[in-house]
UniProtKB/TrEMBL annotation:
Record-linked PROSITE patterns: EF_TS_1, EF_TS_2
Family stated for the protein in its record: Belongs to the EF-Ts family.
Organism this protein belongs to: Enteractinococcus helveticum
Location(s), subcellular: Cytoplasm
A Pfam cross-reference name: EF_TS
Keywords, alphabetical: Cytoplasm, Elongation factor, Protein biosynthesis
InterPro entries from the UniProt entry: EF-Ts_dimer_sf, Transl_elong_EFTs/EF1B, Transl_elong_EFTs/EF1B_dimer, Transl_elong_Ts_CS, UBA-like_sf
The Translation elongation factor EFTs/EF1B dimerisation domain, residue ranges: 71-277
Protein name, as recorded: Elongation factor Ts
Function: Associates with the EF-Tu.GDP complex and induces the exchange of GDP to GTP. It remains bound to the aminoacyl-tRNA.EF-Tu.GTP complex up to the GTP hydrolysis stage on the ribosome.
Gene Ontology MF annotations: translation elongation factor activity
Length: 278
């Protein structure tokens, strides 16, 4: 019989997150050698990972950081919220974020190929997923630059890590600009704009919204002489829904996000909003 104790089993379980029977089998196979047992668990975990490829990884966390005017945000997914709120998964998220910030990667492919302790980060993510016993994947990354970038993370549940994350980059670094940028970041988390301003809305989408507005107005029997004003009014309503700067400001709906930034003597350069699984 292999020479190991209950404490050895507990220690290896803490290192790997593996089940008790899996740990005992690994220690038996390794004749009590904890390092060999760890390797066995990793190998078996990696084999199991291939069986998990088809599973949906819809839980997870959002993490963000800002260094020297560059904001970076990542989403990393797991299969269950049980794993998503575990210390080991949160630590993995922090590691992925650190590599994202230091590597300069601006897409997932580049991030997973980035170096981590002499190997691609993607290999480490896969190994950690194997130890966690679930499919784990880095879903997306955002990188924004500005005179000031505000990161905002929002928890939708007290026992889960952040499920919503926002980055807002502005062109000024004054106290007023920083305050406005943060307020706008909170607004974005709540109101989910799609575009920075109405000019960013693709022409084909605008044309389609214009067509729908006209057809609706005609179906309602609106007078021809008022048709153009009605169409433009409904387009303006659409822009208020999807374009950040046109949206009524969440903290004071009598003004717009654009006006809030203007009063702070700054302009929004870009934003990114992630929600886990969305």
């Amino acid at each position: 019989m292999a020479n190991y104790t209950v404490k050895d089993i507990q220690a290896l379980r803490e290192r790997t997150g593996a089940g008790m029977m899996d740990v005992k089998k690994a220690l038996d196979e390794a004749e009590g050698d904890a390092d060999k047992a760890l390797e066995i668990i990793r190998v078996k975990g990696l084999q199991g990972a291939s069986k998990r490829e088809g599973r949906a990884a819809a839980e997870g966390l959002i993490a963000a950081t800002v260094k020297d005017g560059v904001g970076v945000m990542i989403e990393i997914n797991s299969e269950t919220d049980f794993v998503a709120k575990s210390d080991k998964f949160i630590e993995l998220g922090n590691t992925v974020l650190e590599v994202a910030a230091t590597s300069g990667a601006d897409n997932v492919e580049a991030l997973l190929a980035a170096d981590y302790n002499g190997n691609p980060l993607g290999d480490f993510v896969k190994e950690e997923g194997a130890l966690l016993g679930e499919k784990v994947e880095v879903r997306r990354i955002a990188r924004l630059e500005g005179a000031y970038v505000d990161p905002y993370l929002h928890k939708t549940s007290a026992d889960l890590p952040a499920q919503v994350g926002v980055l807002v980059a502005v062109d000024a670094d004054s106290d007023a600009a920083q305050t406005a940028a943060h307020d706008v970041a909170v607004h974005i988390a709540a109101m989910s704009p799609t575009y920075l301003n109405r000019d960013e809305v693709p022409e084909d989408i605008v044309a389609n919204e214009r067509r729908i507005a006209e057809e609706t107005a005609r179906a309602e029997g609106k007078p021809e002489r008022a048709m153009q004003n009605i169409i433009e009014g409904r387009l303006t309503g659409y822009f208020k829904e999807v374009a950040l700067l046109d949206q009524p400001f969440a903290k004071d709906t009598k003004t717009t996000v654009g006006k809030v930034l203007e009063e702070a003597d700054t302009k929004a350069l870009a934003f990114a909003r992630f929600r886990v699984g969305a």
